Amino acid sequence: MGGFLEILRHFESALEVNKQMALQQGDTGPQVEQLQRQLEKLGYNIGRFNPNFGPLLNEIVQGFQAEAGLVVDGIVGDRTQTAIDRAVAGITLPSRVSPPPVSPSGDFTTGNWPEWRIVTQGGLNARSGPGFEFPVESTLTGGSIVTRHPDYTNPVQGDRVGKPWLVITNQGTAQFIRANNQFIEPDIQS
């Protein structure tokens, strides 16, 4: 009986170590931000990178787990992290050959162009997240040039209704502007 209890204690100890290494809702730190960057590369709409594992990231992790055929628990343990690492390693990035295409409604669905020009005369609001519900952080003047944010593999993020928003670098942080040709155009000289 003593041998069984010893094995059980060892198993419980191993589970506790694995649980401590796993990431889950409520965790904070650079590992959480790295996880966000990996999931953003896979096309998930992270919003602004931050060190907090909140409800949105939990939902995204569960979505990834479901798509990958893993146990859906929102915990990023060894299996989930390995699946994420493999998926990210399989990504090939397109090279820039021509400006991004425009949809019939004027939306840009890809934003892999380095610089963009604001074309609205009255200026364009830059927000803290992809959508009109996020607060305005600055107003960009017509004719000004903005740069897509270098940390985002997918610089166009969808809002709650599916409209695209471009992630730009402004005032030292990531901000979001509506990705539509009524408001912006690729700066071809760049």
From TrEMBL:
Coiled coil: none annotated. Pfam families: PG_binding_1 (PF01471). This is Putative peptidoglycan-binding domain-containing protein. Residues 28-84 form the Peptidoglycan binding-like domain. SUPFAM superfamilies: PGBD-like (SSF47090).
